[in-house]
Amino acid sequence: MGKLDGKVAIITGAAQGMGEAHARRFVAEGAKVVLTDLNEERGQAIAKELGDNALFIRHDVTSPAEWKQVLQQAEQAFGTVTVLVNNAGILGPLVETTEFDEDEYLKVCAVNQHSQFYGMKTVIPSMQKAGGGAIVNISSTAGMVSIVGAPNLAYVGSKFASRGMTKHVAVQYGPDNIRVNSVHPGYIKTPMMAAATDADGGGITAQVPLRRMSDPDEVSSLVLFLASDDSSYISGMEHVIDGGLTAQ
Ligand SMILES: NC(=O)c1ccc[n+]([C@@H]2O[C@H](COP(=O)([O-])OP(=O)(O)OC[C@H]3O[C@@H](n4cnc5c(N)ncnc54)[C@H](O)[C@@H]3O)[C@@H](O)[C@H]2O)c1
User: InterPro entries, alphabetically (predicted)?
Assistant: First the structure.
């Protein structure tokens, strides 16, 4: 028996990195999974590999209209949606606040923060029809503290916003049996991280008490737990997974 038998999940940003790892784990645990991303080629290939319980939809998470289409196609393929993982995100440029271009600021907020609002607004009615659900919003340690090396204030601001919106929606929809939690990863080995650092992690592993970066699959274990009935009384909370980074 899988931990997600009978669940229908939407995972955004699932064509690579952590989103891909979550999609693979969810299907292995019995869920039917809709993978969405801008990267159609990789997304389609992963969904094909995962078989009949996976469907890829090209999706820009900053578009409310595309969210509606994603929900419609997901319900058509698999029925009401019971899990949403708002994972898609971007770093934006590594710049100081006084040098930060306004349009770049808005773009980071749109992808990291506004998308999570659109996703929750769109999918909650489907969860209400299903009698409940679990939402996992992917924030960051940058949504807990402003770590040295955080790329810019929009990244930190949008990840703090994700944490706050999580609590707001958890309180509002708890009576509908909808649980909402945020996940705050530290340094995880993904293409995003590779683009931001050099091969040894830019020396950042020395900052981490466990002295290593995490594999995406280690984060999948936490996301799986929060999506599954194993966490049936956990809602409105932030879950940090950072090898001890922010404990210092
Ligand atoms: N890697 C880390 O160390 C780390 C740490 C903390 C938090 N995070 C967060 O975890 C999440 C996943 O990060 P990752 O490292 O796997 O990143 P990644 O860059 O490897 O993958 C992100 C995916 O999101 C997709 N995406 C970007 N913009 C999109 C849009 N507008 N619409 C749809 N899809 C879009 C990309 O195409 C990509 O496939 C992000 O929210 C990120 O901020 C990452």
Answer: NAD(P)-bd_dom_sf (IPR036291), Sc_DH/Rdtase_CS (IPR020904), SDR_fam (IPR002347)
